[in-house]
Amino acid sequence: MSSELAALNEELKKIRQDADRIMDSSSASSSKPPVAREKISKMSAQVVDSNPYSRLMALQKMGVVEDYEAIRKKTVVVIGVGGVGSVVAEMLTRCGVGKLILFDYDKVELANMNRLFYQPHQAGFSKVEAARETLVHINPDVEIEAHNYNIITVDNYDNFLDRLVHGGLNGERIDLALSCVDNYEARVVVNKACNDLNLVWMNSGVKENAVSGQIQLMDPGRTACFMCIPPGIVAEEGDEKTLKRDGVCAASLPTTMGIVAGFLVQNTLKYLLKFGTVSGYLGYNALEDFFQKDGLKPNPECSERKCIERQKEYMARVAAEGPKEEKVKEEEKEIVHESNEWGIEIGGEEDLTQFTPASIQPSFADETPATTSKADVAALMAAMKNM
Amino acid sequence: MSSELAALNEELKKIRQDADRIMDSSSASSSKPPVAREKISKMSAQVVDSNPYSRLMALQKMGVVEDYEAIRKKTVVVIGVGGVGSVVAEMLTRCGVGKLILFDYDKVELANMNRLFYQPHQAGFSKVEAARETLVHINPDVEIEAHNYNIITVDNYDNFLDRLVHGGLNGERIDLALSCVDNYEARVVVNKACNDLNLVWMNSGVKENAVSGQIQLMDPGRTACFMCIPPGIVAEEGDEKTLKRDGVCAASLPTTMGIVAGFLVQNTLKYLLKFGTVSGYLGYNALEDFFQKDGLKPNPECSERKCIERQKEYMARVAAEGPKEEKVKEEEKEIVHESNEWGIEIGGEEDLTQFTPASIQPSFADETPATTSKADVAALMAAMKNM
After folding, report:
1. What percent of chain B has pLDDT over 70?
2. Which of A34, A65, A80, B314 could form a disulfide with A180 if both were Cys (CB 3.0 to 4.6 A apart)?
3. Eight-class DSSP state of B372
4. Domain named THIF-type NAD/FAD binding fold: which ranges (chains A, B) (predicted)?
5. What is the pLDDT of residues A261-320, one digit of tens each?
């Protein structure tokens, strides 16, 4: 009887292991499609139907990008994989980025099905796990690291910082952080982390009415940070800290969110692969198809102590090296401005802000239609806080 | 000891049942995910996680759309479900359009994996069938009709025309055609069909270098048709008819294609649901984040006989009814221009063309940055032919 019991216990253990393994593998989609291709060790430009990178490597032949394969060495962090962040992650995966690190603490719901990416059978699963499974299937060459927690709590914040500093390929710093969250607090946290670590990041936002959105580049000390906006300017909706209210159903559209995701990843590709002009700020108003382009310089009165420090460092560097592009990493070279293929001229660079340190000239894009006033730009920046 | 044994046996039985259930469900759907939700007969604005339409119906509460559910009565045709068209179809499906009719004759290849939508396990399947299966899974409320043929051959053209006239819900005319093809010949065919049938359509295109694209509204007689561009103006790449060459690998990016798809569906939603300003032309240059907005009036010298007829009909209608919006369908009311939330002014309406019938004033959007010359607009139009 005792040996029977031991045998049963042994059998039980094996079955439990099998069950766990099955549950693990079926995780987000109980019906995962089979992996359809093997990993590819080197990107090829060969024009055959079976090459998933031929249309990307063709960017080199087209004269758009000098070294496309450099993308495989890049690590991008995506904070928030909802309506914008999930599409951002998918685009970067299809572009063959080296590594993606995803942060989110939400679950997929049927109420998310009006945006791209998640599918109904993933309802109930964590967004990062559902995303990871889909992304690995789409492109097994991309390393995906998923964190299912809220970055703003004290415990998680330290781990979040650690991933920014050591999460890159080979344990190095990541190359770029992309904020795709839907609330003020999380943006403040990302801003603080990136100011502290001197890390370039881009913010994105879509308004609650679903018909406008924007992206913004933040390069500590060189551009405005998220807290640089004068506190006197608040957007029409009221207190920015309470804008995302529980129980209030914000509208959203797959169009606006897909477009904002596209802008964010396009700017990311231009930044990482050094082509075109990286935009400092790009706003989209869907009702009028109006696009706002700016870059804001940092506010010397910014409430973020670290931002002020970065500004001083940047000014010292500019004074020492002359008024050229800050090298975010040593190997980075100056952004090459490609010719305007349509030969259309738009307004040149202007001083767009009311709080600009006199000697700093960003070399990223700051073009603006001539009719935009300084007040408009500040209002836009403030409105962004509410997205 | 005996009771312990009984408990173990009981536990073992439960685990075995669980394992059998898991094995059954995973083998039954080895590739296709299970249908995750039932059809929904009426769109609800109720704010619950299980409602896939809550964020869309919220557009009403936000004051953006008056009657969102009207979308369920609309039928949209998508010609070409490649890098742009597949994302267009997914966005419209997630928006809950009544019916989609898809045309394509291509197969999914791994070489398409650098764009959104198709996944590696679909390689080898026809694009329309692969698309249909994914779309039905995402939103079973949308009726999907898929045609796996080339619309430009004589046999297929008649069937194509029939679907435009009778493919709508309840056998009626469709509401809008969207061209997402990648070649000149197919656009000429769509243009001819829509001129003949007096059907509004929108064109889209992405350039071979992957970093620019555009959308354009064509309303027979009221706006320029695809053939209205003066033949003397040809784009930089040479003969527009031979631009898409076999064996030449065009570059493409998920960003640019996703953005163009977003613009096309956004314009579609504004057109079908009557909100915001429907754009006549919207161009996107990714390198500079430059956006070109225009609308071109029809060319009285157009080579398309039917276009000339439609122009005369339109002029007669304008003369009889006054210079207001043409009613494409009788129940259509005037497009309401929402207020510009940012309070930013851009250049007003101008006569942008060199071949404009004097008395016709389109009431759709024709705003243009003040620095754009007439020659630029014509060049843009010509360039579009090459996309």
Report:
1. 73
2. A80
3. -
4. 53-303
5. 999 999 999 999 999 999 999 999 999 999 999 878 999 999 999 999 999 999 999 999
pLDDT class for A20, splitting at 50, 70, 90? Answer: low
CB-closest option in B18, B263, B344 to A290: B344
User: Are A241 and B252 a contacting pair, CB within 8 Å?
Assistant: no
Q: Which two tokens stand for residue A337?
A: 């401005």
- Record: contact A114-B52, CB cut-off 8 A: yes
CB A91 within 8 A of CB A71: no
Structure tokens at B313: 């009909």
Q: Is B380 in Cβ contact with A342 (below 8 Å)?
A: yes
Contact A119 B137 (CB under 8 A): yes
Q: In chain A, whose CA is at the least distance from the CA of B279?
A: A289
* Fold exhibited by the domain B67-387: Rossmann fold (3.40.50)
User: Are A58 and B25 inside 8 Å of each other by CB?
Assistant: no
- Chain B closest-CA separation from residue A301 CA (Å): 25
Residues of A in contact with B16 (CB under 8 A): 15
| Arithmetic mean of pLDDT, A182-206 | 96
Sheet holding A281-285, edge to edge: A143-147, A99-103, A75-79, A176-179, A201-206, A212-218, A281-285, A290-294
Is the pLDDT score of A28 beyond 70? no
Which residues pair with residue A145 across a beta bridge?
A101
Tens digits of residue pLDDT in A121-174:
999 999 999 999 999 999 999 999 999 999 999 999 999 999 999 999 999 999
Specify the residue for token string 């032919």. B385
Domain ranges (residues) in chain A: 54-294
Interface with chain A: mutation pick from B249, B269, B376, highest number of A CBs within 10 Å? B249
Sheet holding B99-103, edge to edge: B143-147, B99-103, B75-79, B176-179, B201-206, B212-218, B281-285, B290-294
**Residue B228 catalytic?**
no
**Domain A54-294, CATH 3.40.50.720 — does that match?**
yes
Residues 6+ apart with CB under 8 A from B386: B184, B205, B207, B235, B237, B240, B243
Q: Which two tokens stand for residue A308?
A: 């002020």
Q: How far is CA B11 from CA A4, A13, A15, A20, B122, in A?
A: 15, 11, 11, 15, 41
Question: How many other C-beta atoms lie within 10 A of the C-beta of residue A214?
Answer: 25
Return the residue matching tokens 């259309």: A344
H-only helix segments in B120-183 = 127-138, 154-166
Interface contact flag, A50 B343, Cβ < 8 Å? no
